[in-house]
């Protein structure tokens, strides 16, 4: 049976949740879903697992799949994680961020993350779950004043 994991990350990869905000998040009622909140010293990458289909340039929409793996390797270090996400696109030679590339399905970088308990695709309607996550992102914005990204990982 396949599992889906949903991770919520701030659009700002370096945003760190503090203890007060973590307490407020833990007090939200999210239809009984259990959550795990992590706060990391170094920037990490939240991937979509087998949902990941492609990545493209946010500026000119060129497919970047062949280039992307090398750019990720270059930006990562064992000691510091992803310390510098800035990059120059190979297609239009413009500066952007690895976080701002167009990922399908969404992916991104984070220091703070909220992981929802996994659910089986047989147990829930994905469309209604997406609406649920959008409402959660609105609640998170009220608490943090930051936009949040929904990462749906499939294994």
Walk me through what this model shows.
- The chain has helices spanning 19-26, 65-75, 126-144; strands spanning 3-10, 35-46, 54-56, 76-77, 81-82, 86-88, 95-97, 102-104, 108-120, 148-154.
- With 155 residues, the chain is of the alpha+beta class.
- The strands form four sheets. Strands 2-9-1-10 form a four-stranded antiparallel sheet, covered by helices on one side.
- β4 and β5 (81-82) form a beta hairpin.
- The radius of gyration is 16 Å and the shape is globular.
- Residues 121-128 have low confidence and may be disordered.
List keywords for this structure.
155 residues; alpha+beta; Alpha-Beta Plaits; 2 domains; four-stranded antiparallel sheet; two-stranded antiparallel sheet; 10 strands; globular
**Helical segment count:** 3
Q: Looking at the chains present, what oligomeric state does this protein adopt?
A: single chain
Strand order of the largest sheet: 2-9-1-10
Coarse morphology: globular
So, CATH architecture of the largest domain?
Answer: 2-Layer Sandwich
Uncertain stretches: 121-128
Write down the CATH topology of the largest domain.
Alpha-Beta Plaits
- Classified by CATH, the class of the largest domain is Alpha Beta
Indicate the percent of residues in helices. Answer: 10-25%
Bin the strand percentage.
35-45%
Number of domains: 2
What's the count of strands?
Answer: 10
**Mind summarizing the main beta sheet?**
4 strands, antiparallel
Task: Please give the radius of gyration in angstroms.
Answer: 16 Å
Order of helices and strands: EHEEHEEEEEEHE
The end-to-end span amounts to: 9 Å
**Mean pLDDT over the residues:** 88
Task: Give the structural class.
Answer: alpha+beta
């Amino acid at each position: 049976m396949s599992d889906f994991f949903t991770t919520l990350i701030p659009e700002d990869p370096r945003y760190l949740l503090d203890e007060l905000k973590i307490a407020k998040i833990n007090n939200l009622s999210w239809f009984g879903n259990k959550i795990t909140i992590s706060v990391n010293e170094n920037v990490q990458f939240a991937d979509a697992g087998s949902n990941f289909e492609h990545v493209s340039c946010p500026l000119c929409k060129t497919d970047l799949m062949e280039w992307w793996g090398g750019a990720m390797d270059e930006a990562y270090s064992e000691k510091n994680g992803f310390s510098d996400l800035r990059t120059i696109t190979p297609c239009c030679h413009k500066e952007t961020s690895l976080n701002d590339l167009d990922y399908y399905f969404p992916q991104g970088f984070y220091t703070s993350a909220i992981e929802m308990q996994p659910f089986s695709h047989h147990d829930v309607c994905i469309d209604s779950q997406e609406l649920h996550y959008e409402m959660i992102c609105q609640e998170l914005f009220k608490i943090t004043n930051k936009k949040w990204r929904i990462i749906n990982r499939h294994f």
